[in-house]
Each structure stands twice: as C-alpha cells, then as structure tokens.
Automatic annotation (TrEMBL):
It catalyses: acetate + ATP = acetyl phosphate + ADP. Homodimer. Its EC number is 2.7.2.1. InterPro entries: Ac/propionate_kinase, Aliphatic_acid_kin_short-chain, Aliphatic_acid_kinase_CS, ATPase_NBD. Coiled coil: none annotated. Belongs to the acetokinase family. It comes from Arcobacter acticola. This is Acetate kinase. Keywords: ATP-binding, Cytoplasm, Kinase, Magnesium, Metal-binding, Nucleotide-binding, Transferase. The gene is ackA1.
C-alpha cells in the first residue's frame, strides 16, 4: 500500500509518499511560491535532495510536477502513478461535522465548502488539492484527515466561549482546536510508553511555528489551547495567542486599524517575532538572548511561561498527570524551554532529569528522574503517518 500524502496550503504544498504498513517513506517534498514563480524541493529517504525551479502558476501545475517528479528523472521513486493506491489529504477545519477521517466524496467537499468561513485561508486550498488529485488520478480513493477531528471529544463546558449562547447555535462560534493529528499521535505513543493502561492523563505540548497544548484523558482530548481559529492559546512564532479582547479593540482604535489589519498583526507580526523584533524562529531568538538582547530574553521567557501556565491548568483539568509530552521543532529540540517549563513542578509529580533533558536523540524518550511520579516524554511527532494510516484503514475498509 502506497499513500500519497498532500498538505495543500494557499501558496505552498507539502507532500510525502509513504507505505503506512511498513512506515517506509519513499520521498518527501515541498512546492513553494505557487502562483509567484515556483520552486520544488524534493527529498529522498537517504537525505539526497533535488531542487527544481519550475514555473507553477497554479496548484494544478504544482501537483502535476510533483507526480511527474515521483515517476521520472532524478526524483524517480516509483515506476508509475498507478503504484499509488490512495491519497491522504491534511484538511484543516472540519467544524463539528467531522470527528474522524473520511473518504472524500462530493458531499464531503460540499460540507468543507460550508466550513470555509471558519478557515478562509486553509479550507479552500485543501479542497483545491482534493479536486486536483481526483482530476489527475481518476478513480483513486482520496481521504480527508482533519486537524480539528481529535478535539471533537472535548466536553461542552471546555469548548464553549462564554458569549451569548446563540453565537454558538447561529454561527458555530466555539473552540475547535488544531494540530489534532499530532496531539493524537503523541498522546497515543505516550500511552504505549506508560506502564499504566487505564485512566491515563496525558498533556501534549506541540511546540513548532504554530503551538498548542492538549489534555488527553484515556486517549480522548478533553481540552486544547487553540480556539475557533489557531490564533488563540500559546504565544507562537508569529501568532499572539491569548490576548484580552479589550487590548485588541483598544489597539484597533489607537492605530485606526480594520479587522483584517488587526488579524494580520495578530497572526503574522506578533508572538516571538513581535516581542523579540528579531525573528519568529526560536533558535535565532535564543542566540539573540545569549548575545545579551533583552527583548530576545523576554520572548523566550514569555514562551516558556505561557506553556507552563497551560500545563498547570491541564494538570487541574485532568485531576493529575501521568505524562507530560513535548513535541514539534521547539518541543523536540529545545532543552532550555523544557527545563523552564518543568522547573518547580515537582509538586505536580513532574521532576525533570537535567542530564536526560540535555541528551539529544531523534527517538521517543523519557527525561523525568527515576523517582518522578509522572513521566516527561520527548516524542517526535509524525502527522504524515497518522494521515497515511487513516487513509489506509479507510481505503481498505478496516475503518468506516
Ligand atoms: P512547523 O510548525 O512549521 O512544523 P517546526 O515544528 O519545524 O515548525 O518548529 C519550528 C520551530 O522549532 C522554530 O521556532 C525553530 O527555531 C524551532 N527549533 C528547531 N530546532 C531547534 C533547536 N535546536 N533549539 C530551539 N528551537 C529549535
């Protein structure tokens, strides 16, 4: 079984070719600057890379080029497109309609179109990716795997905003949460790593350019930090995270900003970039802090403090904790952020071992001291595997 995994964004797309049974990845790559000029970066399993500067006026040309690259020339990894059994699509917003992955049908696309107001940048690109694949590979099954699905198990008192109730009934205004495939993958791995098999209380910190925390009880999400859109929750690379509504309306008045300008500031110019004034990339900001830049120091301390507050809140939401997990570029690589987040949490049963924390490894590992009541795991996420595996299960009828 070979699954072509597609993550279509507004001007870029990521892809991977994977066998979900053996977990073998045949190729992975990225098309950037679609509609501008176009560059394809294709990577083989042995790390060999191929970069092609080819015009990609639309997503269709980009996907055509990717498929061509997989079957011929230097990038070739399969003999024919017929070797691909199914396509798995990352889909961002499934609203309340999709609590699990589904086979893409005209009805699914129609429902996703209705959800566009909830994700105006992402859902149209995802739908476009599905329609192009159906067009270019007629008859091949396509599966949609939603970022929001894993969080659909949250209880109403966790997902509701305390706005007038009809805002929910009329417009679906509530928390949905994102990064669901990562939260599912990591919490599931963590469950496997715990000795305990029942009443498992797991907190997952997915820390990348976009970041979110989730509380997972017995494999089911009971709360998460992102909201109706991904701008809520933790401070991120360029997103503000939690900011009081009063501060936002005051900033709009003072700056004479429109809603769109305000959202642009909160999504693209805030977070680590906004505070440091240097970069959205934590590595550069950590370097700035080492060089004595005080705003970089502030950004790093804010990032860690925000995560720590959510961890504390979710220990309370779960009535305790069995495992705290770190994943994503920051979670997997920054021992400093992990150290600051865990400092002083011994009372909650979380006791980090500095030596284990500072050791590097690309494998899942426990960085808690032996005497720590709860475990602290670093688990590399694998969202592509979740997409490929869901696709495999749905296509082969193992899951309806
Ligand atoms: P995305 O959300 O785009 O998938 P990633 O999960 O790759 O992002 O995470 C990117 C973030 O991880 C960046 O802020 C980057 O600086 C950070 N990061 C990567 N490696 C390290 C490292 N060794 N130390 C600190 N931060 C790191």
């Amino acid at each position: 079984m070979l699954v072509f995994i597609l993550n279509a964004g507004s001007s870029s797309l990521k892809y991977q070719l994977m066998n979900p049974v053996s977990k073998e990845v045949l190729a992975t790559g990225l098309c950037e600057r679609i509609g501008i000029d176009g560059v394809l970066k294709h990577e083989f399993t042995d790390g060999k890379k191929l970069t092609l500067d080819v015009s990609m006026p639309t997503h269709k040309e980009a996907i055509e080029l990717v498929l061509k690259t997989l079957v011929e020339g230097e990038g070739k990894v399969i003999n024919s497109i017929d070797n691909i059994d199914a396509v798995g699509h990352r889909a961002v917003h499934g609203g309340e309609e999709f609590a699990s992955s589904v086979m893409v049908t005209p009805k699914v696309i129609e429902t996703m179109k209705k959800l566009i107001p909830l994700a105006p940048l992402h859902n149209p690109a995802n739908i476009m990716g599905m329609e192009i694949c159906q067009d270019l590979m007629p008859g091949k099954p396509n599966v949609a795997v939603f970022d929001t699905a894993f969080h659909q198990t949250m209880p109403d008192y966790a997902y509701m905003y305390a706005l007038p109730y009809d805002q929910y009934t009329k417009h679906g205004i509530r928390k949905y949460g994102f990064h669901g495939t990562s939260h599912f993958f990591v919490s599931n791995e963590a469950r496997g790593m715990l000795d305990k098999k029942h009443n498992t209380r797991i907190i997952v910190c997915h820390l990348g350019n976009g970041s979110s925390v989730s509380a997972v009880l017995n494999g089911k999400c009971i709360d998460t930090s992102m909201g109706l859109t991904p701008v809520q929750g933790l401070m991120m690379g360029t997103r503000a995270g939690d900011v009081g509504a009063g501060a936002i309306s005051y900033m709009m008045t003072q700056e004479g900003m429109t809603i769109d300008q305000t959202l642009d500031v909160m999504n693209k110019k805030s977070g680590i970039l906004g505070i440091s004034g240097k970069s959205s990339d934590l590595r550069e900001v950590l370097q700035g802090m080492q060089d004595g830049d005080d705003r970089c120091r502030l950004a790093v301390e804010m990032v860690a403090y925000n995560i720590k507050k959510y961890v504390g809140a979710y220990v309370a939401a779960l009535d305790g904790v069995d495992a705290l997990c770190f994943t994503g570029g920051i979670g997997e690589n920054s021992s400093l952020i992990r150290e600051i987040v865990c400092a002083g949490l011994d009372g909650m049963g979380l006791n980090i071992d500095p030596t284990k924390n500072n050791k590097r490894s690309g494998k899942p590992r426990d960085i808690a001291t032996n005497s720590s009541t709860a475990r602290i795991f670093v688990i590399p996420t694998n969202e592509e595997y979740v997409i490929a595996n869901d696709t495999y299960k749905i296509v082969s009828g193992l899951e309806k």
